[in-house]
């Protein structure tokens, strides 16, 4: 029993350390490009030492990819949860995505305002496309274009909100996107895409 408790405590410590590192990188990316940040600087902002950093990551690029992979995993998880033989539950999927973003809002705002956001944006677009195509039953070429259009609109709307919320809530953003996506679904008569 003691070993299980110690492992759970270690897992929480590892998660806490990785969170400190990723959040520190997000903050630093608002000021500099990834190539201009040093590991020493990141460690100072994360309040860890270099040895601790190297226990978890091999480079700053590794941290960046960890951020991308975290977004990828979260998105695929939500896609699996809200896809069924009856179609895609758009409202539930978007609502959960935005709830998760809102739960760690300063982190996602920092990423959206960061100097590497264009790269992150393109990686997320690819993740979204891969995930939705995996769960889409249609083989029409139009589906790919519709998905790209919808994902681009979603990310652009999300980016604008993260960079400047202007008193809008994540629920406002969710409703706007869902209503727009449903209109696209109706126009193209594609039920399993949105």
Question: How would the blueprint of this fold be written?
Answer:
Layout lengths: L1 H28 L9 H8 L3 H7 L3 H22 L1 E2 L2 E2 L1 H14 L1 H9 L3 H19 L5 H23 L6 H19 L6
Antiparallel strand pairs: 1-2
Helix pairs in contact: 1-2, 1-6, 4-7, 5-9, 7-8, 8-9
- β-strand percent reads under 5%
Low-confidence stretches: none
- Give the biggest beta sheet: 2 strands, antiparallel
Q: Shape, please?
A: elongated
What this model shows, in words?
With 194 residues, the protein is an all-alpha fold. The chain has a domain of 130 residues. The protein has 9 helices and 2 strands; from the N terminus they run H-H-H-H-E-E-H-H-H-H-H. It has a two-stranded antiparallel sheet. A hairpin with a 2-residue loop joins strand 1 and strand 2. The N and C termini lie far apart (47 Å). The mean pLDDT is 87.
Task: Give short descriptive properties of this protein.
9 helices; elongated; 194 residues; two-stranded antiparallel sheet
Quick take:
The chain is mostly helical. Helices cover 77% and strands 2% of the residues. The chain has helices at 2-29, 39-46, 50-56, 60-81, 90-103, 105-113, 117-135, 141-163, 170-188, and strands spanning 83-84, 87-88.
């Amino acid at each position: 029993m003691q070993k299980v408790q110690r492992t759970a405590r270690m897992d929480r410590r590892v998660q806490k350390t990785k969170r400190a590192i990723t959040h520190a990188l997000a903050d630093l990316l608002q000021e500099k490009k990834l190539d201009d940040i040093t590991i020493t600087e990141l460690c100072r902002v994360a309040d860890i030492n270099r040895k601790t950093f190297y226990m978890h990551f091999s480079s700053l690029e590794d941290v960046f990819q960890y951020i991308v992979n975290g977004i990828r995993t979260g998105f695929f998880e939500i896609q699996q949860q809200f896809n069924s033989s009856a179609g895609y539950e758009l409202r539930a999927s978007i609502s959960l995505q935005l709830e998760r973003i809102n739960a760690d809002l300063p982190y996602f705002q920092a990423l959206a305002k960061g100097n590497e956001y264009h790269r992150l944006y393109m990686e997320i677009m690819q993740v979204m496309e891969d995930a939705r195509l995996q769960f889409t039953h249609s083989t029409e070429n139009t589906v790919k274009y519709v998905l790209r259009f919808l994902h681009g609109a979603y990310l652009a709307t999300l980016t604008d909100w993260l960079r400047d919320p202007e008193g809008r809530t994540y629920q406002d953003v969710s409703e706007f996107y869902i209503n727009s996506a449903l209109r696209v679904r109706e126009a193209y008569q594609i039920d399993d895409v949105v």
